[in-house]
Automatic annotation (TrEMBL):
<feature type="signal peptide">
    <location>
        <begin position="1"/>
        <end position="23"/>
    </location>
</feature>
<feature type="region of interest" description="Disordered">
    <location>
        <begin position="345"/>
        <end position="368"/>
    </location>
</feature>
<dbReference type="InterPro" id="IPR000782">
    <property type="entry name" value="FAS1_domain"/>
</dbReference>
<keyword id="KW-0732">Signal</keyword>
<dbReference type="InterPro" id="IPR036378">
    <property type="entry name" value="FAS1_dom_sf"/>
</dbReference>
<comment type="similarity">
    <text>Belongs to the fasciclin-like AGP family.</text>
</comment>
<feature type="domain" description="FAS1">
    <location>
        <begin position="73"/>
        <end position="174"/>
    </location>
</feature>
<feature type="compositionally biased region" description="Polar residues">
    <location>
        <begin position="348"/>
        <end position="368"/>
    </location>
</feature>
<feature type="domain" description="FAS1">
    <location>
        <begin position="239"/>
        <end position="338"/>
    </location>
</feature>
<protein>
    <recommendedName>
        <fullName>FAS1 domain-containing protein</fullName>
    </recommendedName>
</protein>
<dbReference type="InterPro" id="IPR052806">
    <property type="entry name" value="Fasciclin-like_AGP"/>
</dbReference>
């Protein structure tokens, strides 16, 4: 009788602890007790991953030491994604991308920005972030990122014991400091200020933005932001106009863009695409370069034949990266330095599309 009572008491205590854990935002909803006590067959993970098309990860599940008694969430990288890390150990990589517990996309979307969750790899944590796509329906349309890599196929598999999310992007092994705020070296950043909550939020958002830029082919912009980190770290928010790597190398403007980065950043303002499109012609926008400003030379709403232009340059892609503090828009060429009074001539340029207009757009600044 005492053994039965002990078993009943154990089940009651476990249920109470599980209820408390579910109330904490960092814990996913607990599965039923029958599932917790269930032992998975060793081939379960291999079968699931293989069926879903993750052949490389499926082949290393035996060596990944995933738990056979704990509900598990796996962020599965495609076979092509694994090529981005040729030196990675696949068993360790699978272990680092697997979490104890069931984390659906809905639950991940509602986590605080920069939430760290411990993986099956000892002392290794994944960082969960999300970006706002549509401000009017922010939660339901948020893209979720795991260590800067987007979940492209959320809730691909969920049988109540195992959840699999498909991810695609650049991946690497987790840092030994991944469960804390990673230390900033002098090569990447200056010495950090005291670790206040506000600083940690800004730092994590800056890291997230740079990771997404690297993934999208804007590595030089990400590098330039690291170099300029002392100036950028004091901003409450910012709008960045970025040039992709291919355009920079094609035009030989890499060094010029890095040195002129501050001219492509609007400090302490979030100017999303919808906001920029609503600005009238000749609107002046301040930049981080002292005395230099951007100008709306063609207002939005003109259609494909007369697209919106800033300093005579068309925006290639609005809201490339967006979170609550940083928004990045893509350009095909850097902004030329123009005096804001020259914006009055842009209406004629937009209509004629003449060679003279193109020369005007690329003319050197007349400002001192």
């Amino acid at each position: 009788m005492s053994a039965a009572m002990n078993l009943l008491l154990l089940l009651l205590v476990t249920a109470i602890l599980a209820t408390k854990a579910s109330a904490h935002p960092l814990f996913p909803p607990p599965p039923p007790q029958s599932q917790i006590l269930h032992t998975f067959p060793p081939s379960l993970f291999a079968t699931i991953l293989s069926t879903l098309g993750f052949q490389e990860l499926s082949s290393v599940t035996t060596n990944a030491n995933l738990s056979l008694i704990t509900p598990t969430t796996i962020f599965a990288a495609t076979d092509s994604t694994l090529l981005t890390c040729p030196s990675c150990s696949l068993p360790l990589l699978l272990q680092e991308h697997s979490l104890p517990g069931l984390y659906t996309l809905h639950f991940l979307r509602n986590l605080a920005f920069g939430t760290k969750i411990e993986t099956f790899a000892p002392d290794r944590c994944l960082t969960i972030t999300a970006s706002h796509i549509n401000p009017s329906d922010a939660v339901a349309t948020r893209k979720v990122f795991v260590n800067g890599v987007e979940i492209t196929k959320p809730d691909l598999f969920n049988n109540g014991l195992v959840i699999v999310h498909g991810i695609q992007g650049f991946i690497s092994h987790l840092s030994p400091a991944s469960c804390t705020v990673e230390k900033m070296t002098t090569l990447a950043y200056p010495d950090p200020p005291p670790p206040t909550a506000a600083f940690l939020i800004k730092h994590s958002m800056m890291k997230e933005t740079m990771a997404q830029l690297r993934f999208r082919g804007f590595s030089l912009v990400a590098l330039a932001m690291r170099i300029k980190y002392p100036e950028l770290s004091d901003l409450k928010s910012m709008t960045v106009f970025a040039i992709d790597d291919a355009s920079i190398f094609a035009g030989g403007e890499g060094h010029a863009y890095v040195t002129d980065l501050m001219y492509h950043i609007v400090p302490n303002r979030i100017l999303q695409g919808s906001h920029l499109m609503g600005l009238p012609s000749e609107t002046v926008i301040p930049t981080m370069e002292r005395g230099q400003k951007l100008v709306i030379t063609t207002a939005g709403g003109g259609g494909p034949l007369a697209p919106m232009r800033i300093n005579y340059v068309k925006i290639k892609n609005f809201d490339l990266v967006s979170n609550t503090r940083i928004v990045v828009h893509a350009l095909s060429t850097p902004f030329p330095h123009v005096h804001h009074r020259t914006a009055k001539n842009e209406g004629t340029c937009a209509q004629s599309q003449s060679e003279a207009c193109e020369n005007n757009a690329n003319a050197p600044s007349t400002e001192s």
